[in-house]
Write a structure and sequence with these properties.
18% of the residues lie in helices and 39% in strands. With 274 residues, the protein is α+β, with helices and mostly antiparallel strands. The protein starts with 7 loop residues before the first strand and ends with a helix. InterPro entries: Ig-like_dom_sf, Ig-like_fold.
């Protein structure tokens, strides 16, 4: 398996996870900046705009046009946002700079009485798996603590569907969703909450989100792709054939050069005898 970071923007709708809220999933390359757009071309008189982060529903930025107040609260949550938040004074959009995994999570922006938007932001890993193999997606927990709830969500088109949920002493696997494509293929680690997908096929490719509701509320996103071993072998065979063709070509050139030099040597010797 090999991993790399990707940058993309997808629209997801969460079914049975966050009700009917529409979220934008914004995947961010580590250390890059990301802007959460308010969808305003210009702030209006009287507008109040608030940006919050899902852990403790912490307020991280606030705009009050009437009071001429533009404030970022970058010291909340142990200062994880310190010197990273920037507000656009014209549109109210919020930019987070130097983004890392500790900033993964759900962000909400609200123009009071006008607009409400939510975003899932995450640095996420891509995992490539051979068809028929198992793959384990690590939740990065050493142990599930009392009060923690873990939910694994799978992206299907523009929808997010919960495939597993786990609370202390209670595990639920929803392997009958999506026409049963996950039936008898999902396994949750009771201690760590990590998810294993067995006998994986191309229909299981996609994005998987691990959401842990608890004291820290960490979030992880994985993009899983599946390759066919036959295609892999075909590619390898093509490379071997290419290399062999090149070697044959080199051998032919060597033989031709040798033949030409031999003929010239014979001609020179014949001329000397004359």
């Amino acid at each position: 398996m090999f991993h790399r970071f990707w940058f993309c923007l997808c629209l997801w709708r969460l079914n049975g996870v966050f009700g009917d809220d529409e979220l934008k999933l914004v995947s961010v390359k580590k250390r890059d900046s990301v802007t959460l757009n308010s969808d305003l071309t210009e702030i209006m008189d009287g507008d109040v705009i608030q940006w919050s982060f899902w852990i403790k529903n912490a307020l991280i930025a606030d705009i009050n046009v009437t009071a001429d107040k533009f404030t970022v609260y970058d010291d909340v949550l142990d200062g994880r946002f310190r010197d990273r938040l920037k507000l656009d004074n014209k549109t109210g959009s919020l930019t987070i700079t130097n983004f890392t995994a500790e900033h993964n999570g759900v962000y909400s922006g609200e123009v009071i009485k006008r607009i409400r938007k939510s975003f899932v932001l995450a640095v996420y890993d891509e995992i490539s798996v051979k068809k028929g193999d198992p793959v384990t997606l690590n939740a990065d927990l050493t142990e599930i603590m009392d009060g923690n709830t873990i939910q694994w969500i799978y992206k299907n088109g523009n929808d997010l569907t919960a495939v597993t949920s786990q609370r202390p002493k209670r595990i639920t696997v929803h392997d009958d969703v999506l026409d049963g494509r996950f039936r008898d293929r999902l396994k949750l680690d009771k201690q760590t909450g990590s998810l294993t997908i067995t006998d994986i096929t191309t229909e299981h490719a996609g994005c998987y989100v691990s959401m842990i509701f608890g004291p820290k509320d960490p979030l992880k996103v994985f993009s899983v792709s599946v390759y066919d071993s036959e295609h892999c072998c075909g590619y390898t065979e093509a490379v071997i054939r290419l290399v062999l063709s090149a070697l044959v070509g080199v051998a032919i050139v060597v033989i031709l050069v040798y033949d030409i030099r031999s003929r010239r040597t014979e001609q020179n010797q014949a001329q000397k005898k004359e």
